Amino acid sequence: MSQDAATEGDLRNTGMSLKHDREWDYELDRIVEEIEERDASRVGLQFPEGLKRRGPAVADDLRELCDDDVTFMLSGQPCYGACDLDTYLMRRTDVFVHFGHSPMKESDKIIYVPLFSNVDPFPILEEAVDELPDEEVGLVTTAQHMNRFDEMVAWLEERGYDVHTRRGDDRLTYEGQVLGCNYASADIDADQVLYVGGGKFHPLGLAMEHPEKKVLIADPVNNVVTVADTEKFMKQRYGAVHRAMDAEKWGVIFCTKIGQGRMEIAEEIIEDNDDAYLITMDEVTPDRLRNFDMDAFVNTGCPRITTDDGPQFHKPMLTPGEYRIAVGDEPLDSLSFDTFHGTW
Amino acid sequence: MSQDAATEGDLRNTGMSLKHDREWDYELDRIVEEIEERDASRVGLQFPEGLKRRGPAVADDLRELCDDDVTFMLSGQPCYGACDLDTYLMRRTDVFVHFGHSPMKESDKIIYVPLFSNVDPFPILEEAVDELPDEEVGLVTTAQHMNRFDEMVAWLEERGYDVHTRRGDDRLTYEGQVLGCNYASADIDADQVLYVGGGKFHPLGLAMEHPEKKVLIADPVNNVVTVADTEKFMKQRYGAVHRAMDAEKWGVIFCTKIGQGRMEIAEEIIEDNDDAYLITMDEVTPDRLRNFDMDAFVNTGCPRITTDDGPQFHKPMLTPGEYRIAVGDEPLDSLSFDTFHGTW
């Protein structure tokens, strides 16, 4: 993932660098209770990349609270989202704790600890309302700010807004939640949507998925209000599509991660195109694809890999929709954001 | 993996670049027969890194020989050895073909296609015998030259040698075979061992594991004969051990790949050391460890990662034996090569 500092309004890069330091509630008591209740001897802990360095301290705290015979294991698998559940470690431990994301797979062995942000969203909302002229407004946020969602709705209503929210579809856990690959919670009856959260990828997807709406970004972590601008992103994507138009050999990537498997889409492409080859993998990285002698790739897995990491691959990397444009099945202006809907 | 050109006798780096181009027998007929016999509709193909670019052509050849309703899938998982079996793809296909390595796990769904080298080993053997003064000689080679093993034994015997060979232990498939992590086939009653093969890692392990023997490397691919020299390698390892001696926080890596799981060793370390944390992962890469705030790492998985890739990690990376030296449990001169024996 790119960690470049992105300029305001430039949605090409998302970043994990944060201006505010945050504290998290790891819900140690709930975890200890589960460990005791199940008489667990092996406990797996999985943290998102940005919090992996906190893992040993959390393990220390848990060791102090638990019997000596409990072994704690930290997942070293890359973890950027709810799809990155370490199923290997999960299957081999009695209790498995996944920190920082909402549930993608339910199992009574898994404890999801959401890690809600302790950053106060209201100062930045105060600035945001200056740029929300209409009475009707949609409100969406990411998992880490869900703990303040109801308060934010009430806050906006107090200021005279008619706040539209919805749960989206089965892929989403909370009302008003967006994922990097799903913006169904913004399918609401308002011309302006307020996105509260950090990062650039979510509001970008939101703006691409709902081009008829004004998407206002209120980032309580970096303390900025911006209007989502998809222009630079669109240029980058059209560039990738154009470079792939001459491709003869296509690598069609099927991602094996939970929640990312779109086999029908992958198989449809290889059935129609004799020069397309199905490649399966879990982590989709430039290194792994370098040894494949392809002219271009189509990624049916996480859209973030295609759009955020895309420029790092040695050959053009397209979404399934962009592939159809590149091979001439769809017109250029059909370019859209790649999203996952429903269940999987 | 490092692909630096290594100088002769310098065993610190192994390489995948080859001077001779090789052709391989993919055993298409055997694969097609299995596909038809099982009425398979999904077939997985897994190639080692160096041969991944041949994958699409092999898939094309198979498509021509099979019914249209058979879907071929290429594994995009990294593959450097027999441990890198793509079990995800294996479980989700009717027939799974693993090219280039001998079996690490048996299943009647898996076809192992060994990909024996077609390089003639006898010209380089002719040069090698000048440096084998004793009558008694051990002979070992890697999986890819096993097809000529009996001929090589006979060839040496014709020249008056008493050739010692053995199968090694359960981890090895063939008589005379070595793996990067197992040199039990060189436990023979001779003071000189002839290793026929490319790369630097195998003869290095061989020389480290059998320091009392002279290890002669006959590399038929790069056309060189050298005597294995462990000095530079030892210096690098002692350097890593010394740098780790001040470490407070240790990351103990348990590799989840088939054939690499040494949980007892990992658990022993974390039980004895309160500042050691168990980290589980499949691919052990510098990127994945960078987010863990440790002072040093111990790798209980593939020794090749520790010794070949070691310098690329941001903190010292030790084998379990080296860890015991670094924490003062064993004397400095106990440093040895990390090998895997028996079954797993």
* CA-atom Rg of chain A in angstroms: 21 Å
Specify the oligomeric state.
homodimer
Overall form of chain A:
flat
Number of helices of chain A: 11
Sheet of most strands of chain A: 5 strands, mixed
Largest interface: A-B, 40 and 40 residues
Average pLDDT for all residues of chain A:
90
Give the ordered list of helices and strands of chain A: HEHEHEEHEHEEHEEHEHEHEHEH
Give the C-level CATH assignment of the largest domain in chain A. Answer: Alpha Beta
Which architecture of the largest domain in chain A would the CATH scheme give at its second level?
3-Layer(aba) Sandwich
Taking the alpha carbons of the first and last residues of chain A, their distance comes to 25 Å
Helical content band of chain A: 25-40%
Structural class of chain A: alpha/beta
The beta-strand count of chain A equals: 13
Kindly report the spatial arrangement of strands forming the biggest sheet of chain A: 6-5-7-8-9
Strand content of chain A: 15-25%
CATH superfamily of the largest domain in chain A: Diphthamide synthesis DPH1/DPH2 domain 2
Low-confidence stretches of chain A: 1-20
Q: What is the count of structural domains of chain A? A: 3
CATH fold name of the largest domain in chain A, please? Answer: Rossmann fold
